[in-house]
Design a protein that fits this description.
homodimer, alpha+beta, L-amino peptidase D-ALA esterase/amidase, five-stranded mixed sheet, globular
């Protein structure tokens, strides 16, 4: 369903990471800078979320544009990182205009956190404003690394090294849908009965040998689900309304439910942002498609395709986060436990 | 994960069906009558729901007890069936007390519908009050039939005969969790690549032979997703708050997302009710479990187990609805297309 790909396959989106490891550190921040006019929504489905500037994304709130999304470690403390992203955007005069001066702007930077406190050894080592600013400065439109980078640095998924994954797909009508996930789930990304991910990612894995299957099963069984969370983004070039952006985020949670089991528990903070850059009007595409449906119905059919693709991309992103993660200390990676699952050509772990 | 079982494995719940077939009819109603003091919540995740008396289930509304749940065919017209359930309960003086007379009650009967209009040949043949009353009168605590009965009579799942499925599980602490689903999904319950359900049900199926796999794949591919919906119930003996009942319903949608792909589209009315009969206090069970966690944390761990079991039961119920369905006309059943998947001992289709 997905073609590998990246969140940045939606033109105009740039992604940047900043992280620190060692000396008590094992955490980081991931930022998506968005093209002008991007509209956002949200669906929070975990029982213990940590978020900032998200109430304005609800359909009844006035603001609809979003300038960046900040995903970060540090639990609720890490929400400070969003301030650094705002500082970066303010300096570039990017934000909601509130005065006559060029820089009289308020950047809208909805944010969500994962719990990774103390995983590097020191409870107080967590992202601050500088992390957000550095991640924003590092943001590029080119494919960004997968695995234990940025907000995924200190992530853990049922005892395995967590990380960042991303995926995209292009629909038959040219609409691009993409996703980025930071997987820090209490649930399993790996099916204990097969030793393989529940859902496919970009790499075709082989069934690991029996001893490896047993090792990963035991390891996941022994890992007490702690405070955990999967957070992320789905984005599309399709022109969605603000309310549709929240629906887009909502259905992306189905991809999360397929890739991580169980999920959405009372101790997860599972949160997904839905973004539309508005490039492609679904209302005009319907004619090009010549599918014979009345315009309103045709738009719904395309919109459903966007929702479905969002779920598929989010699921693939969750899988790739774990498959590509290299241990940053404390938790073994999937690859450490199941090396035989990987193709020979897979880049060596660093 | 599930042990087969039924919604009625939660003591006090009784389930009844009423349906009509032939002479333009192909629809029905399923009712769950609930023990006194049952608390309810809801999560509506489809884009096109049809519901009645559901706003009072929201955490901020006053009413918390629920006397019955009515699931029915007939799209929004079918909501009339709830009136028949109310009449049945009023006659038994079951309801919210609003006056001095024994029968001065208002029964609380939250309801949801599936779209099956015209599937028996006549658009106007749909459930009315009599369907709800008869289904309520037929309600029993014993295992109820699976497949194309009650509200599942006219159900269709991506071109296959839909139906009613149910499942239950008993947790280590004695808490019972159960589910009932009416599957009328636009998405696939059968994985097109294997010809088997995405998620396991109570019957161990074999991979169908190649010609059957191809037949079911082609059939699902050719079936244009129409107006569709999966509706259902998760119930537990665990004492949940009203808000927790909605969370319970919410996580059950993860089971739906695993069993039906795609799901929650703009044309689905996917709605799940979450019910707690309150028999088992999770707060007291924690001591018996002797798990060494502080009381509040231990309650959350058990509650998470209830949520996870609800998702598992709902997924199994969706699968069993399709696996057990016998065609009621118009749509072939899964069994019609893939007979080789079934064990020899499987009861013959009638």
């Amino acid at each position: 369903m997905t073609n590998g790909g990246c969140l940045t396959d939606v033109p105009g989106i740039r992604v940047g990471h900043h992280q620190r490891r060692g000396n008590g550190w094992r955490t980081g921040t991931t930022v998506a800078l968005l093209p002008a006019g991007t509209i956002g929504g949200i669906d929070v489905r975990g029982g213990g979320p940590g978020t900032r500037d998200t109430d304005l994304l609800r359909p009844t709130a006035t603001m609809d544009v979003v300038h960046a999304v900040c995903l970060t470690g540090g639990s609720a403390y890490g929400l400070a990182a969003a301030g650094g992203v705002m500082r970066h955007l303010e300096a570039k005069a990017i934000g909601f205009k509130v005065g006559p001066g060029t820089h009289d702007v308020v950047p809208i930077v909805p944010s969500a956190v994962i719990f990774d406190l103390g995983r590097g050894g020191a409870f107080g080592r967590r992202p601050d404003e500088s992390f957000g600013e550095r991640a924003a400065r590092a943001a590029r439109a080119t494919p960004s690394p997968l695995g234990a980078v940025g907000a995924g640095t200190g992530a853990r998924a049922r005892g395995l090294q967590g990380g960042v994954g991303t995926a995209s797909v292009t629909l038959a009508n040219g609409v691009v849908v993409s996703a980025l996930a930071v997987v820090n789930a209490a649930g399993c990304v790996i099916d204990p009965s097969t030793g393989l991910p529940w859902m496919p990612g970009r790499v075709v894995l082989r069934r690991p040998v029996a001893a490896e299957r047993e090792a990963v099963r035991r390891h996941m069984e022994s890992a007490v689900p702690p405070l955990n969370t999967t957070i992320g983004i789905v984005a599309t070039t399709a022109a969605l309304t603000k309310a549709e952006c929240s629906k887009f985020a909502s259905v992306a949670h189905d991809g999360l439910a397929r890739a991580v089991r169980p999920v959405h528990s009372l101790l997860d903070g599972d949160t997904i942002f839905g973004l539309s850059t508005g490039r492609d009007e679904l209302g005009s595409l319907e004619n090009a498609a010549g599918d014979g449906l009345p315009p309103q119905r045709s738009r719904i059919v395309w919109l459903n395709a966007v929702l479905e693709a969002g779920a598929a991309c989010f699921a693939a992103a969750c899988t790739d986060a774990i498959v590509h993660a290299v241990s940053t200390g404390g938790d073994p990676s999937y690859r450490d436990l199941c090396p035989s699952a990987y193709p020979r050509a897979f880049p060596s772990a660093k």
